[in-house]
Amino acid sequence: MIVTIDGPAGSGKSTAARKLAARLQIPYLDTGAMYRAIAYEVLRRGADLGDEATVVAVAKGARLDIDCGPTHTRIKVDGNDVSEAIRSMEVSSATSRVAKLPAIRQLLVEKQRKIGDDLKSLVSEGRDQGSVVFPRADVKFVLEASLSRRAQRRFEEMTGDGEAVTLECVKENLSARDAVDARQWEPLLGDRAAIILDTSGLTIHEVVDRLFEHVRKAKMLLTGR
């Protein structure tokens, strides 16, 4: 079974996807980490983020190893584990610029589909999982939340990891990322193509309970029991 969770940054989809995968006992794929890993490598090499050809060359030359477990997605670049290093504000800002490049998106979409083919079952989260990467996913979700709520969540997450950031800075970063993302999950919002859940006033436990219940019902329809 393939379950996709899309939505804007800070909507809670990463945590929800990880906890849902653990509950379902299937792998979890954080596709945003793949874009972050490319951005991190561009920064590490001191390459010009504004030079598309250089960024694409870095992405094609970097070896990404993705370890998808029911509770984690660990990512290595050329054998180096960058799972924590890619979570900084600097990398977040660079990721927006990297992710908007069509050649990068094509490269990583192909990698994501290959992971899906290999694993068969997974919970995959990102911006375009249900609309582009896995259009035939068994269950598709779109998580939404207000900008202020998303900023607060991301701020608490980053300061909890020891990063010195301000709430206003985080809010500006999310707003900029929203503009670049261009709502890639938009196709999922009409004709009941996905189950839409506003997480603004929900705890993570409530979110996961609701997602799990939808998946449980979908599995019953697929298996007849």
Describe the structure.
- This protein is α/β, with parallel strands linked by helices.
- It has a single domain (2-210), classed as Rossmann fold (3-Layer(aba) Sandwich), CATH 3.40.50.
- The protein contains nine helices and eight strands.
- The strands form two sheets. Strands 2-6-1-7-8 form a five-stranded parallel beta sheet, with helices on both faces. It has a three-stranded antiparallel beta sheet with strand order 3-4-5.
- A hairpin with a 2-residue loop joins strand 3 and strand 4.
- The two termini are 15 Å apart.
> How many strands?
8
| Total domain units | 1
From the N-terminal CA to the C-terminal CA, the straight-line distance is 15 Å
Oligomer status: single chain
The fold-level CATH name is Rossmann fold
General form: globular
Q: Helix segment count?
A: 9
Report the average pLDDT across residues: 90
* Biggest sheet statistics: 5 strands, parallel
